[in-house]
Amino acid sequence: MTPSTLLFGRNQLGKIHDNVREALETLIPDNRNLEEERAEAEEKIMTNQTKNEENYNKHRRKAKEYKVGQYVMISNVDSTSGANKKLIPKYRGPYQIKTKLPNDRYVVTDIPGFQQTQIPYDSILDVTRLTPYDSN
Length: 136
Known about the structure:
This protein has helices at residues 3-8, 20-27, 34-58; strands spanning 71-75, 91-101, 105-109, 122-126, 130-132. The mean pLDDT is 83. It folds into two domains: 3-58, no CATH class; 71-132, SH3 type barrels (Roll), CATH 2.30.30. Helix content is 29%, strand content 21%.
């Protein structure tokens, strides 16, 4: 059903009516029950949402979890125009997990005593940008 059928009880095709009330009173048949049609549409929407969620979650894997204090590497995003990105390292670091936040995010900081840049690094990153640090 179209949204206008569910809302007004009339499928709005063709010319747009200026006076909506007049159009609704003259064009809606009395034998239609909008509440039943709306309930049916709501039920169909809910079942479609459930199916879509199940289909999406079939191929989704659980995000990797890191512990506070664990060393990680951050994916290296170099946005310098004209620079060759073929030979730059894929990750930079190591850094340390300072805090775990909701929605698979972490506060990442420099390792105490091993600051790599002049400005201390302190950022919130998504788990997809992190990888565990291998000291070998």
